[in-house]
Amino acid sequence: MSEAPAIVATDVSRTYELDGVSVPALRGVSFTVEADDYVAIVGTSGSGKSTLMHLLGGLDRPTGGTLVIGGRDVATLSPPEMARLRNETIGFVFQSFHLLSRTTARDNVALPLVYRGIGRRERRARAAAMLERVGLAHRMDHRPNQMSGGEQQRVAIARALVTGPSVLLADEPTGNLDSTTGQSVLALLESLNDEGVAIVLVTHDREVAARAHRQIVMRDGLIVSPAPVTGEEGAA
Ligand SMILES: Nc1ncnc2c1ncn2[C@@H]1O[C@H](COP(=O)(O)OP(=O)(O)OP(=O)(O)O)[C@@H](O)[C@H]1O
Ligand SMILES: [Mg+2]
C-alpha cells in the first residue's frame, strides 16, 4: 500500500500534427498506476487508449502535462535515459505485435535482453523459458509469418515479460485469441499481478475488463469514468 506508484500522469495531453492539422488524441488525462494495480482501459475506437498506453510506457512523450514513470519525470530524461528506464521498468505488448518478421520467436523474445548486456546463451535460455510459459515451446524456431495471430500475440507477451518488468502494459492482449487461449493469457497476467507486477490492459471485451480490479473508460481523449476530480464544480 505504501509502495510508490509505478506511473503518475497528471493532466497529460498528446496532440498529433498531421499534414498541418492538429489531432488532439488526449486532452488532459490524470491517471495513476499503482505498484500492484490491475486496471482495464476501455472506450470506443479512436478514444485515445493506445495513445495513453504509449505515453505510460515511455514510448512517446506528452505534449502537455506531467508524466512520472518509476519516480522519474520523463521531461527531464534524454532519449537514452528514457530507453533505459523503459527497458528496466516496462513490458509493452503492442496492439499490432511489432515483432521482427525475419527473426525466430525465440530471438524476438530474447531481444530486450541484448540491451541488458546479457550473454547470448543466457538470453536464449530465458527466452525459451518465457515462450514455454505462454505455451509456445513448440514454436520457438518459427518466424512470425509462420505463426497464427494468436501465437504472434503470445510471442509479443513473452517478449514483454522476459526482462521481468514491474509494469506490464498490454494493448488488446487477448484481441486475437480464441477464448481458451485468451483465458490462459489472462491467467498468466493475473499470476504476474499476484507476484507484484502492475498490469494495465486495453480491451474491447467486457468479460476481460471485468476481471481487472478496476476499469477506466475513455471517450474523445478524456477519462470519463471514474469521473475526474477537477476541484472545480461543474467544469463540464
Ligand atoms: N500517429 C498519429 N498521427 C495522427 N493521428 C493519430 C496518430 N495516432 C493516433 N491518432 C489519432 O488519435 C486518436 C486516438 O487514437 P488511438 O490510437 O489512441 O485510439 P484507440 O482508443 O487506441 O483506438 P482503437 O480502439 O481503435 O485502437 C484517433 O483519432 C487517431 O486517429
Ligand atoms: Mg488502440
Mean pLDDT: 93
Shape designation: globular
- The CATH class designation is Alpha Beta
CATH fold-level name: Rossmann fold
Reported for the largest beta sheet, the result is: 6 strands, mixed
Organism: Actinoplanes friuliensis DSM 7358
Keywords: ATP-binding, Nucleotide-binding, Transport
Protein name: Putative ABC transporter ATP-binding protein
GO molecular function, one term: ATP hydrolysis activity
What key phrases describe this protein's structure?
binds adenosine-5'-triphosphate; Rossmann fold; binds magnesium ion; 236 residues; single chain; globular; alpha/beta
Overview of the structural elements:
- The chain has 236 residues and is α/β, with parallel strands linked by helices.
- It has helices at 49-56, 79-89, 105-114, 120-133, 149-161, 179-194, 206-211; strands at residues 7-18, 21-33, 38-43, 64-69, 72-73, 90-93, 167-171, 198-202, 214-219, 222-225.
- It has one domain: Rossmann fold, CATH 3.40.50.
- The chain is built from seven helices and ten strands.
- The strands form two sheets. Strands 6-7-8-3-9-10 form a six-stranded mixed beta sheet, with helices on both faces. The chain has a four-stranded antiparallel beta sheet with strand order 2-1-4-5, covered by helices on one side.
- The longest helix has 16 residues, at 179-194.
- Magnesium ion binds at residues 49-50, 95, 171.
- InterPro entries: AAA+_ATPase, ABC_transporter-like_ATP-bd, ABC_transporter-like_CS, ABC_transpr_LolD-like, MacB-like_ATP-bd, P-loop_NTPase.
- It holds the Pfam family ABC_tran.
- GO terms for molecular function: ATP binding; ATP hydrolysis activity; transmembrane transporter activity.
- Residues 7-236 form the ABC transporter domain.
